[in-house]
C-alpha cells in the first residue's frame, strides 16, 4: 500500500502546477428549504432524504397508509428513478409513473407547532399525500413543491408520506415539449432534497408557499452601493396561525464573515390571528465588503421574530452578498459602480450527471461550480431551468454570476393554462433565488421559441413586479418577438456568429451578450461537429475542440478570442456547453463539454483555465494563480507539434534531457483572448523516444513546460510517456469536500491504468471492476456498463454513495480477467463524516 500511495502521489504531482486558495479546506454550506438554521430560534429542519420505498410504475391505491409496499425497493433522495449508462441519449431513460412512500413518527415536542414538507424538485406532474390526505398537487419539475402537513399529522404513531410522480410528456405545463424532440432529458423522480421544517405558529413565511408578488419570507435588496457605504433594505413577511393576536418585534442583525456585528435593524410587529404582515427597513453598511466574482464576500443576516417579552419565537440565517449591477447599453456592464474591465466568459449548464441523471447530491453541485470557477469562468447560464439550490449556494460562495432561466425549450402551447403556468414558474424562480448575489440576469422567455409578442411583454412585467428594486435585469433574444421590453439582448457579436436569433444592428440603449457559443455542427440532424469531442476519442479530437473554442481558423464564428475583440457594449458569452450530457432527440450524447459526464477534464478545460488571471487571489475558494499545461500525451500517435496552455508571460518547453528548449513570449498589449494557445512546432519525435527507451534511458524522455512571470519560474508541468502498464491508481475526485454520512452524498472515484512511475497509460482497452467495503454503496452495475467499467483515455470512474453510518470506506479497483502480467489492483480508503443536517 505504501508503494501504491507513492505512485498515486506521483500521478497527482504530474498534474499542472496551480496555486490554490487558502480557503480550500472550508466545508461548503448548503441552505435548507431556502434558509440556514439558527440555534435557539425554535425553528428546526430535518433531511427527509433517507428511507423511501420506491416503485417505478403504476400502483393502484399506493397513497393509502395501509398499502403494502414491502416488496418495493428502498432508496434515498435525491433519486432519479434508475441508473443509466454513460451513453443514454435517444430516450433510453424511463418516462411514466413512479411512487415513493416514507414512514416517520413526529416528535411529541412538535405538537402545537407548524410543519411543512419542502421538496426542492419533483420531476413532472406530482401529487403528495400524508396519511391518505392529498396535501399538494404540482405541475412542473424544477421548482419547490411545498405542503403544510400540520392538520393531517397523527401524534404518537407512524405517519405515511406518499408521492406520485409522472415525468411523461405533457404539453400542459412547461417545458411542455416531448422528450423525443428535446435537446436534454427530463429524467425523473424526487431528484432533489426533501426537508421537514418545524417552527412556531408565528413564523417567517416561505415565499414560494405564500404566492405574493415581491412578498413572502425574506427579501434583501439594495439601494445606493459604493465602496464607502451601501443601503441594505430588508423585507420580512410573518404569518400568525396561532389562536390569538401577536405583538412583538422583528430583529435583523448583520454579521461579517468573521462573526463581527456590522449593523442591526428592529421593527415593531403586530399580526392578528390568521393574518400575515410584512415589515420593512433599511440600514446603511459603512465601507462594505462588496461581492464580485473575484471577491465573493458573504455576510450573514440573522433574522428573528421576538414576542413582547423578548423571547425568540422564530428565526433563521441567510447569506448576503452586497453588490450593484447595471447594464448601461453602449457603456456595457457595471459592477459596484464601476465599469467591468473585461468580457464575462462562462458556460451553460444542465444538471445532468453520468449514471444518476439529474439526481445529484449537494456536494456534486458544489464540485461542479468549483471546477468551473477553477477554470476561470465567471458566469453560468442555467440552461434551461432553475437549478438546484445547492448550485446557487455554491455560485454565491465561489464567485459565479448566474443567468436564471425559466423552464422552456422550443415549445409553445396556445392553451391559456400553459402561459399561466409559465408565469407562475417565473414568479417562483424569482421568489426562490432573489436573495442570491450570484443572480446576474433573469431569463424569463422560453428558450428559442417564437412566442407571442404580448407574452414577452407580460413576462418582463412579471419580473418587475416580483423584483421592484434596483439592480434587477432580464434578457431575451435580440430578434425575438417582444425584445423591445428587455434591456439585455442575446446575440452573437458583430465580429462573430454561429447561431440563430442574432442581430447585426445594435441599439445604443441595449447591452448585448451571447447566451450560447462554440457549437459547430454540420446540420441539426447529423450533429457532426469539430466542437463535439468525446474524451474517449483521445488527444487529437480534444485538441481540435479546444482550438475551436479558443480561436477558429476561419473568421465569422464566435470563439473566446472573438468575444475579447468586441466593444464594451457586448459584455461576454456562455459556451455551449460545460459538461457532456444526455439528450432526448438524438442518439448521441452531447460531447461538446469541456469535461465529460463524470466531470473528467478534456484538453479544452485547461485551455479555459489558462485564460484566468495569473495573480494569486486569496479572496477565492477556487483555484487561482499561474498555470501551465502540456496538452500532449507522448503516445506513439501523438502529434509532432506540442500544444501548451498557460497564463504566464513566458513559457519554456524542453523535449528530453539535454534537449533543445523552445521559448514562447506572450504578445504584449495584444487584442483578443488573454492567453493565446501556444503551439511549439515539430517538437515531439517518437523515434527519439524509442531510442531512449531502447537504451534504458526512460527518465530522459519527457516534455517539460515552465511558466515564467518577470523572469521567474512560477508554474511547471512535466509529461512522460507511459510505458508498460503494471498497476492501477485510485483517487477520489472530491475537491476537498468530505463525504457526509447522510445516505445521499456521493463522490466520484477514478481508477487509472499506470506504469511503474505512475504515468497514466492513455491507450489501453481494459475494463475495471470496483468493489466497496464499509458504510457505502457503489452507484453502478453491470447492466449500465458502469461496473465493470471500460477504461476510456486511461481512466474509469465510478460513483460511491454514503450510508447513514460514518466511517472508513475501502474502494478496490482491479482489471477484469486478471493474469500473471495484468496490472495490479489498487485500494483507496475514504472516510465519511457525520452529516451536517439531522435526518428523519
Automatic annotation (TrEMBL):
Q: Which GO terms describe its molecular function?
A: hydrolase activity, hydrolyzing O-glycosyl compounds
- Provide one Gene Ontology biological process annotation: carbohydrate metabolic process
Q: Where is the Glycosyl hydrolases family 2 sugar binding domain?
A: 86-196
The residues the entry assigns to the signal sequence are 1-24
What Gene3D superfamilies does the record point to? Galactose-binding domain-like (2.60.120.260), Glycosidases (3.20.20.80), Immunoglobulins (2.60.40.10)
The UniProt entry, under InterPro entries, shows:
Beta-gal/glucu_dom_sf (IPR036156), Galactose-bd-like_sf (IPR008979), GH (IPR017853), GH2_Domain-Containing (IPR051913), Glyco_hydro2_dom5 (IPR040605), Glyco_hydro_2_cat (IPR006103), Glyco_hydro_2_N (IPR006104), Ig-like_fold (IPR013783)
Which keywords does the record carry?
A: Glycosidase, Hydrolase, Signal
Domain Glycoside hydrolase family 2 catalytic residue range list: 331-456
Q: Can you say what this protein is called?
A: Glycoside hydrolase family 2 protein
